[in-house]
Amino acid sequence: MHRKRLCDPAFPFAARSSWDGPTGTRHKRAGSGSWCGSTVVGVYVPRVNAVEDPEVVLRLLRTAAIGHLVSGDGSTGFESTPIPFLVDDAMTTVRAHLARANPHWRRLGETAAVLIVPVTDAYVSPSWYPSKADDPRVVPTANYEVVHVHGSVRVRDEPTFVRSVVTDLTTYHETERAAGTPTPPPWSVDDAPADFIERQLQAIVGIELTIGRVVAKRKMSQNRSERDQAGVAEGLRRTPERRHHDVADAMERGTT
Q1: What 3-state class would DSSP assign to 241?
Q2: Which of 66, 196, 202, 219 sits in a 20 to 30 Å window from 233, CA-based?
Q3: pLDDT tens for each residue of 214-247
Q4: Where in the sequence is the domain holding 101, given as residue range(s)?
Q5: pLDDT tens, residue by residue, 27-66
C-alpha cells in the first residue's frame, strides 16, 4: 500500500513546509506560509516533533476520547466545546455532536474551525536527566502529543445523521473497551428503551467537519540524548499517575 506523507498534495495536510530557526536548526512552522494554496496560521512544530506519517496521525486521533472544537472570527472572541468525535479512515471528515442547549452550534454554519485533540501529556522533571550530573544547565518541560484538525464545519441536524453519529461512537468505544475488559459485554444503543433514546437524540445536534489540514505534534524529549530519554521514561513510570505512564509508553513506542 502506498503510504502518503503529510507533504503529499493529495492528502489533507500541508503541501509545502516552511522552515526557519537559528543557524544549525530547522523548524517546521506548521501553518505559516503557503499550504495547499492558502495562507493559514497554526501550531508551532519544530521539525523533530513533526508527525508525517498519516497512519500514526490517525492512531493518535483515535486514541483520544474527545477533542476541543474551537471556532470564531477573533473579533468577538472564540468559542470552544469539548466533543466526542469520529474520524474516517482517509481523514477527510470528522463527525460529532453538541448539546442542543449549547449555543455554540448556532454560530457554526459553514464556519472555519479547528478541532484540538490532546492525546497524552506529562510534566518532565530535569532531575530525571542523567546528564544533569555533568551539566546542571537543565530546566523543566512537558512532553505531549497533540493533533490540530483544521477545516470547515457545518450543522447536520437530520435525525438519521445524529443517530448514526451516536451509534457509531458507541460501537467504536464499546468495542475498544471490550477488547481490554470483555466483562461486562459491550453496551449497544439498542439496549436502552427506544423512546428514551429518541428523547436523548432530540437533545443533541450533529456536526460535520470537512478536513482541510491536519497538524500533528509529538514532543517526547527528542532533543535529549537517548540516556536522558530513558531517564525521563523511567521517572514517569515511577509516578503514581496513569497518564504519566501513558507518556512513557508513547516515548518508548516512538512514531510507530
Answers
A1: coil
A2: 66
A3: 999 999 999 999 999 999 999 999 999 999 999 9
A4: 19-251
A5: 344 443 333 333 345 789 999 999 999 999 999 999 999 9
Q: What grid cell was written down for 256?
A: 510507530
**CA distance to 12, 33, 50, 94, 187, per residue, from 8 (Å):** 8, 16, 15, 20, 40
* 11 domain-assigned: no
Q: Residue 154, class by beta-carbon neighbours within 10 Å (0-12 exposed, 13-18 middle, 19+ buried)?
A: middle
> What CATH number is given to the structural domain containing 143?
2.30.110.10
What residues pair up with 93 in beta bridges, in sequence order? Answer: 210
Q: How far apart (Å, rounded) are the C-alpha atoms in residues 220 and 39?
A: 29
Confirm whether 12 is domain-assigned.
no
Helix (H) or strand (E) holding 2: none
The number of distinct structural domains making up the chain is 1
Would residue 144 count as lying in a domain? yes
For residue 71, the SS3 value is strand
Per-residue buried b or exposed e for 195-219, using 16+ beta carbons within 10 Å of the residue's own CB:
eebeeebeebbbbbbebbbbbbbbb
| Residue 26 lies inside a defined structural domain of this protein | yes
C-alpha cell at 126: 530535569
The one-letter amino acid code at 148 reads: H
